[in-house]
Design goal:
Elements: H1 2-20, H2 31-48, H3 51-66, H4 72-92, H5 98-102, H6 114-117, H7 120-135, H8 140-189, H9 195-249, H10 254-263, H11 273-283
Helix pairs in contact: 2-8, 2-9, 3-8, 3-9, 4-9, 4-10, 4-11, 7-9, 8-9, 9-10
């Protein structure tokens, strides 16, 4: 996992470099400095954000550590599912997929693609627009515009979590300075004491500045960027669904519609034309003609 490797590299590099210069490792452990910095940062985070964004941030954090769920195979499963779904509707009529749409949990078609059905937001997005297609009450341009507006709203909402975490990252060096100032105040209270005691107190105070800067730039800031990447990938997943549906609405056959979806993928996950075609053919129900 890259995020864990990154954390280990940061800690190893900082601690090893510090000790190589003859630093005392024990003095870096300042639990009350940590309490001041992270307690104040968390309190500010709660003040600045409504409960829905707080919940969103805590929902994103384990996803970041797990890594992106959107692998190349997941994208190919999505396009294979859309191909099979629209092939069925083209062959038997839109009403033939109504039962699948109404109860996707028990749909034989959808249950063949567990990688996709576990993506609840994507499934809800797909089901909503399939119902509108079956209802036949909207023209393709209206439906495309509605999808675009919804995607913009969803992406904006997902990015709010990243922005909230990034604001904490920006504030952490300041909280480190606060912890350092309080430490200096304590050191000044012992100004008539032994030099070694005053030096230890000043050192402990300066650790607060160090911890605030380190946490802001090496951990919390990159975490906000990782959350933003997750949000962007989720939006791309929904965008592929949108593009494929629009192609179907404009009269393209399913085999060409999924090509529209393939073309808007990021290059790292995008399969080749023949690779996707072979994958889709391998997932088709028995007895169905070739693409």
């Amino acid at each position: 996992m890259l995020i864990v490797a990154g954390i280990v590299i940061v800690i190893f590099s900082v601690v090893t470099g510090y000790m190589a210069h003859g630093g005392n490792l024990a003095i870096l452990w300042q639990p009350f400095e940590l309490l001041i910095i992270f307690g104040a940062a968390f309190g500010g985070f709660l003040i600045a954000n409504p409960s829905k964004i707080v919940k969103q941030v805590f929902a994103f954090i384990p996803l970041v550590f797990k890594g992106s769920p959107y692998s190349k195979e997941t994208y190919m499963d999505l396009l294979a599912m859309l191909y099979e779904l629209f092939q069925k509707s083209q062959r038997e009529g839109l009403l033939a997929i109504e039962a699948d749409i109404d109860d996707p949990e028990n749909s034989e078609l959808f249950q063949k693609y567990p990688n996709i059905t576990k993506e609840h937001q994507a499934m809800e997005f797909l089901m909503d627009y399939l119902r509108l297609m079956v209802g036949g009450s909207m023209n393709p341009h209206e439906l495309e515009a509605l999808m675009e507006h919804e995607l913009e709203t969803l992406h904006e909402e997902e990015e709010q979590a990243a922005h909230a975490v990034n604001r904490v990252a920006d504030a952490l060096p300041g909280f480190g300075v606060i912890a350092a100032i309080l430490g200096i105040v304590i050191a000044m209270g012992s100004i008539d004491g032994p030099v070694a005691t005053i030096g230890a107190l000043v050192s402990a105070a300066l650790i607060g500045t160090f911890l605030g800067i380190l946490a802001g730039y090496s951990f919390v800031g990159p975490l906000s960027a990782a959350i933003e990447h997750q949000a962007r990938e989720k939006s791309k997943f929904l965008h592929i669904i949108k593009v494929t549906i629009v192609a179907i609405l404009n009269g393209y056959k399913p085999v060409l519609a999924i090509e529209f979806g393939r073309k808007v993928m990021y290059e790292a996950e995008r399969p080749g034309f023949s690779e996707l075609e072979d994958y889709v053919k391998g997932r088709k129900p028995e007895g169905e003609g070739t693409a």
